[in-house]
Amino acid sequence: MNLWLKLRRNTKPKRSRERKRILGQSIELRPQEVNDRTSFGHWEIDTVMGKKTKGEPVLLTLVERLTRYMLVLKIKAKDEASVKEAIQSIGTR
User: What residues have CB less than 8 Å from 74, skipping those under 6 apart?
Assistant: First the structure.
């Protein structure tokens, strides 16, 4: 019962993320009317993954902020081409 506990220290040096890519505007910079949900037409888009294997189908979710109307589409993969194809298919429906 008098065994020493293993001391856990992170031996890897911390890396700074100076060159991190900025992929669009921050969600904190959106207009106040979007936060208040006072006008129709502001959509949020996200992808939902199951298992983390490359090339596996994922769910694309689109939610309208005012009405909370939700569209869920199954797409081939989590890449730009698949998302773009799914959004264009919504417009033709």
Answer: 57, 58, 59, 60
Q: What is the DSSP string of 18-79?
A: TT----S--GGGS-HHHHHT-SS--EEEEEE-SS--TT--EEEEEEETTT--EEEEEES-SS
- In a domain, residue 73? The reply is yes
Task: At 73, list the tokens.
Answer: 């589409």
d(CA 56, CA 78): 8
Q: Is residue 20 part of a domain?
A: no
pLDDT given for residue 20 in this prediction: 76
Domains held by the chain: number: 1
27-69, pLDDT tens digit by residue?
A: 888 888 888 988 999 999 999 988 777 778 999 999 999 999 9
Q: Are 55 and 77 in contact (CB under 8 A)?
A: yes
Domain that holds residue 49: 42-92
| Amino acid letter, 4 | W
